[in-house]
Amino acid sequence: MILTFVGTAGSGKTALTYSFGKYLEESYSVAYVNLDTGAKKLPYRPDVDVRETVTVEELMAEGYGPNGAIVESYDRLMAKFDEYLGAILELEGEHDYVLIDTPGQMEAFLFHEFGVRLMENLPSPLTVYLSDPEILRRPHDYCFVRFFALLLDLRLGTTTVPALNKVDLLDEEELEMHKRYFDDMEYLKTRLRLDTSMQGLLAFRLCSFLSEVSPPVRFIYLSAKTGEGFEDLNTLAYEHYCTCGDLT
């Protein structure tokens, strides 16, 4: 089983890769893949690590700016694409789980040929899109998260599970509020009807047909610190790789 963690910088991808991997290691064989050329230190020991080819730090020493170095690093990785693909496929054949940690700058993975081609050539990878509670300020923010997960499906060609990470930072009332917005689409649409802004109107229209275009995937709630949601994520991964049913 291949799980790919995707999210914006600071969403907790690396910490979750490590913690969820340790959870899985109690019962399964787990391999780790680091695709972040900008990572300086990792809590896990990667079995495949793109930093062995190039790092953002090395490129900045050559005179590239931070953003340019990230793009250039993936340009250079393309020369070894087949090598990395083969190594990950080999891990998939030898382990129960392969966990892929993607760049902090999500666009480097989503908009470069390396990331898209990799997902297209892996056997049924499951993508976990991590969002941070900090971005959830208004009702239409929840609609944005739902639609962005759907866009990941479209861009990467993988089944994408939307997840709210860092739930350990929330009190019980805050968590229940987030769950109500994410788990009850009718409630979200009712709240959006009350928003007279252009953003609210757009979000209402988008959410009104979301059920028609979105695959049946349930939202999950995770914490790398407490392990909350790990059993749910493991169950979703199992359901994805077998014929037990959909991901509702």
From TrEMBL:
<protein>
    <submittedName>
        <fullName>GTPase</fullName>
    </submittedName>
</protein>
<dbReference type="Pfam" id="PF03029">
    <property type="entry name" value="ATP_bind_1"/>
</dbReference>
<keyword id="KW-0547">Nucleotide-binding</keyword>
<keyword id="KW-0378">Hydrolase</keyword>
<keyword id="KW-0342">GTP-binding</keyword>
<dbReference type="InterPro" id="IPR004130">
    <property type="entry name" value="Gpn"/>
</dbReference>
<dbReference type="GO" id="GO:0005525">
    <property type="term" value="F:GTP binding"/>
</dbReference>
<dbReference type="GO" id="GO:0003924">
    <property type="term" value="F:GTPase activity"/>
</dbReference>
<dbReference type="InterPro" id="IPR027417">
    <property type="entry name" value="P-loop_NTPase"/>
</dbReference>
<comment type="similarity">
    <text>Belongs to the GPN-loop GTPase family.</text>
</comment>
